[in-house]
Amino acid sequence: MIILREGRVAFLEFLRNLSSQVMILTVALFIGTSIEARLGGWSTAWRAALCASVLLLFFAAALANVTVFVETCLDALGRDGEAPARRGKRERIVFRWTAESLRAAWKRHAWSIVALAVLLECGFIAVFVTASFAAAKLMR
């Protein structure tokens, strides 16, 4: 399994970054539950804007965390296969490169890709459950 060999450092970084995602999502949920839709006005608008910006920060952190982990794992899986080589201007082609690498790795390592997807999904379920319980505790 890839997370026990070449991907173990990326896997540990992925797990380490989940705790910051829990904190960010907890803050967003706490702010979101304090918004009272009936009142309206600037107070509600500021809280909604703050909640939306914190949620945007959460999604950016989650996307960054996942892409680093998946890229590292796909690099390791593609070494023995026909994974596409990285080209210049990496920022513009990262999603295309990831999709091409995923297709190439799927041909040879389908079960590893499925295990990677399950692992990522379990990580995000843990983030959402933990953040929900933490926000509920904060509201008491």
Polypeptide structure, described:
It contains 4 helices and no strands. Helix 1 (8-33) packs antiparallel against helix 2 (41-78), helix 1 (8-33) packs parallel to helix 4 (110-139) and helix 2 (41-78) packs across helix 3 (90-108). It has one domain (2-139). 81% of the residues lie in helices and 0% in strands. The model has no long low-confidence stretch (mean pLDDT 80).
Describe what is shown at a glance:
This protein is mainly α and 140 residues long. Helices cover 81% and strands 0% of the residues. The chain has one domain (2-139).
Biggest beta-sheet profile: none
Distance between the termini: 43 Å
Q: Taking Cα atoms only, what radius of gyration do you get, to the nearest Å?
A: 19 Å
- The fraction of residues assigned to DSSP E strands is under 5%
Structural class: mainly alpha
Low-confidence stretches: none
Order of helices and strands: HHHH
The helix content is over 70%
Shape: elongated
Number of strands: 0
Whole-number mean pLDDT: 80
Please count the helical segments: 4
The number of domains: 1
Transmembrane segments: 18-37, 49-70, 110-136
Keywords: Membrane, Transmembrane, Transmembrane helix
